[in-house]
Amino acid sequence: MNPLCGRCNQVVYPTEKVNCLDKYWHKGCFSCEICKMTLNMKNYKGFDKRPYCNAHYPKTNFTCVADTPENLRLKQQTKMQSQVHYKEDFEKNKGKGFSVVADTPELQRIKKTQDQISNIKYHEDFEKMKTGADAPYQPTTPNQGSYQQPAASQNYHHYEPTPEPVRQAAAAAPPPSSGKRYRAVYDYNAADDDEVSFMDGDIIVDVQQIDEGWMYGRVERTGQQGMLPSNYVDQC
């Protein structure tokens, strides 16, 4: 069965058939929709499945927006307005869930002190090892004194002098004087038995550095000696 023409809707026979734009046309019916100029397969232009000549072909108009300073300003303003909600939430929650703390020198000093205090366990082990090195000398006295029964009568008399060499050994435990003198710039209360307390302005003598955060010395005012934080004193 022969198809119908796309324009006159009449039967199109094979000898006069033009197959284009998904339709069949008579050669005379294949013309421009506007000016009715007869077209062929070389000069036609299709739009919405309708043939047009080059002069009457519908053109799609595009709107070009120039990137002018005003448009750039509007773009920047829109971008800034998109952050209004975020800033409003920030101002509402400011100071509620969190607080901004300035990293002042005083806070840095406190932070460093806390880090040093966290090393107390290390210094305790250090002191235990230090006392453990002297410990063999104490058990040797009873071990060497194998004659406990004949010396029992003398132990009563020698019981008092025996602590004296132990105390002398304890007094000799501090490191030898290095001649360094330090002045305390803060008050410090000893947090452990092996530490020493001092006040602002005290002179620390016989100072020996143990590590980056701690040193060993004697307070000239009180005569007490022990470990102290190095960031609490300045060298004279």
UniProtKB/TrEMBL annotation:
Its main location: cytoplasm. One of its GO terms (molecular function) is metal ion binding. Residues 132-181 are annotated as: Disordered. Keywords: Acetylation, Actin-binding, Cytoplasm, Cytoskeleton, Ion transport, LIM domain, Metal-binding, Methylation, Phosphoprotein, Repeat, SH3 domain, Transport, Zinc. SMART domains: LIM, NEBU, SH3. Residues 3-63 form the LIM zinc-binding domain. It comes from the Eukaryota. One of its GO terms (cellular component) is cytoskeleton. Residues 138-156 have a biased composition (Polar residues). Pfam families: LIM, Nebulin, SH3_1. GO terms for biological process: monoatomic ion transport. Residues 177-236 form the SH3 domain. It is found in: Cytoplasm, Cell cortex; Cytoplasm, Cytoskeleton. InterPro entries: Lasp1_SH3, LIM-SH3_domain_protein, Nebulin_repeat, SH3-like_dom_sf, SH3_domain, Znf_LIM. CDD domains: LIM_LASP, SH3_Lasp1_C. Plays an important role in the regulation of dynamic actin-based, cytoskeletal activities. Agonist-dependent changes in LASP1 phosphorylation may also serve to regulate actin-associated ion transport activities, not only in the parietal cell but also in certain other F-actin-rich secretory epithelial cell types. This is LIM and SH3 domain protein 1. It comes from Xiphophorus maculatus. The lineage of its organism: Eukaryota, Metazoa, Chordata, Craniata, Vertebrata.
